[in-house]
Structure formats: C-alpha cells, structure tokens
C-alpha cells in the first residue's frame, strides 16, 4: 500500500499510520476498532481551503472577494474532489469492508472526496503545510487551469433551474456550526425536487454555494 500510495500522492510518509488512517473507510474502522479517515478529512478540508484560497489570490490578484469565493467553492466542491481522487487513482487504495466494496462504495463521490481530503490532512500532519500545498497544486493543476472565467454562482444557477420548471425555490438549512468563532465550520443542506445537496465550509455563504453545486450535480 505504501509504495503505491507514494506514487499516487507523491509523498513518502514518515508516519505510515497516518496514511493507513487516511485510506480507511468507516466501514472498516468499526470492525477494527480503529480510526476512520473522518478525523483527517476534517483537517484536510481546512488545509485544502486555505491552500486553494491562497492560490486563487495569487493567480487572480485583481479579483474581489465575491469572485474568489465563487471560484473557491467550485474548486473544493464534492464533484471536483471526486473527479481528482479518481483521476489520480486514490480509489484503488481505499480500504473498505467487503460488503461495501461489492456495493461500489469506492466509486461514490462522497467517499472519494472525503478520502482525498483525508489524504491532504495526513500529508499535513506528517510533514507540514508545504508538502500538502505541493500535492494540492499538482492534483488541482488541471482544474484551476480550466477555470479561465469565474464559474456561475451555484445558488443562482440552482434557482434558475427551479424557476425554469415552475417549481418552488429550494430551501437552505444550516445543519450544524462547529469550531471557534475565528475558525468555524458550517454544514448546510439545500433541498428541492425530492433531492438534497450538502456543503461544508468555513463560512455559511461558501457552504451554501457548495450545497447548491452538489444539488445541481444531482439534478443534471
């Protein structure tokens, strides 16, 4: 596992237990009484947000906060993370329970995106911010290069989708708010057309954008 993971992540772990934790789905952790990758995913989410925000500010020095926020929300959205995780081959490294594997859990966007954030968290705890930043800039290079113009505001696009079909505007709900005031973590849910999208971010506005993007992806 370690050799393959080094090829996929481009990082040699000084603490291989972090790698094992990052690649362990909760279906396996429950049986082994160990940690799943949820704890590292929590850390990796923040490292990813900080790194991409820093990268965007550097790449678009004249962009205002609103534009940067929309770009950030798209780049750290679940569909983008899942696509990157699959592209680099992270799905092949995940450890899941046999039954879950047969059900195709490794291909689920939620599982792939969580594992990718967990891998980022593991690299950060193993060696610090610089190696984590290096990995993110390699893995996200194509995604950020394709973002030549700001993506459409996901909330506006979602509202237009419902209006065009004569349906009620989807409702947003803050599911939880955790963390200290200087580093909060919002989980937002948006519901419509018997489907639900979720988003997690350090601000309510960005979490709403992520939730809208998630629901749009399902509707499409």
Which features does this protein show?
mainly alpha; 61% helix; Ribonuclease iii, N-terminal Endonuclease Domain, Chain A; Double Stranded RNA Binding Domain; 3-stranded antiparallel beta sheet; single chain; 220 residues
Please sum up the structure shown.
The protein has 220 residues and is mostly helical. The chain contains 12 helices and 3 strands; from the N terminus they run αααααααααααβββα.
Please tell me about this protein's structure:
- The protein has 220 residues and is mainly alpha-helical.
- It has 2 domains: 2-146, Ribonuclease III domain (Ribonuclease iii, N-terminal Endonuclease Domain, Chain A, Orthogonal Bundle), CATH 1.10.1520; 154-219, Double Stranded RNA Binding Domain.
- It has 12 helices and 3 strands, in the order αααααααααααβββα.
- It starts with a helix and ends with a helix.
- The model has no long low-confidence stretch (mean pLDDT 87).
Which segments are poorly predicted (pLDDT under 50) over 5 or more consecutive residues? none
**What name does the CATH topology of the largest domain carry?**
Ribonuclease iii, N-terminal Endonuclease Domain, Chain A
State the end-to-end CA separation. 36 Å
How many β strands by DSSP?
Answer: 3
Helical stretch count?
12
Quickly give the structural class: mainly alpha
- Give me the CATH architecture of the largest domain, please: Orthogonal Bundle
Tally of domains = 2
Note the overall shape.
Answer: globular
């Amino acid at each position: 596992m370690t050799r393959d993971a080094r090829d996929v992540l481009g990082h040699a772990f000084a603490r291989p237990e972090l790698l094992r934790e990052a690649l362990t789905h909760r279906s396996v952790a429950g049986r082994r009484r160990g940690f799943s990758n949820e704890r590292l995913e929590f850390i990796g989410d923040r490292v990813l947000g900080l790194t991409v925000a820093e990268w965007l500010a550097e790449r678009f020095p004249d962009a205002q906060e609103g534009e940067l926020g929309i770009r950030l929300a798209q780049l750290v959205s679940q569909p983008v993370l899942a696509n990157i995780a699959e592209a680099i081959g992270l799905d092949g490294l995940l450890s899941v329970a046999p039954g879950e594997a047969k059900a195709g859990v490794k291909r689920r966007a939620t599982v792939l995106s969580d594992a990718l954030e967990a891998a980022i968290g593991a690299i950060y705890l193993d060696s610090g911010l610089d190696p984590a930043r290096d990995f993110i800039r390699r893995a996200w290079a194509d995604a950020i290069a394709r973002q030549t113009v700001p993506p459409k505001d996901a909330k506006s696009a979602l509202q237009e989708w419902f209006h065009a079909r004569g349906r009620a505007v989807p409702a947003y709900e803050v599911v939880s708010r955790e963390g200290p005031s200087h580093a909060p973590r919002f989980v937002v849910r948006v519901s419509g057309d018997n489907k639900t999208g979720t988003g997690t971010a350090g601000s309510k506005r960005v979490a709403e954008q992520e939730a809208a993007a998630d629901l749009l992806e399902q509707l499409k």
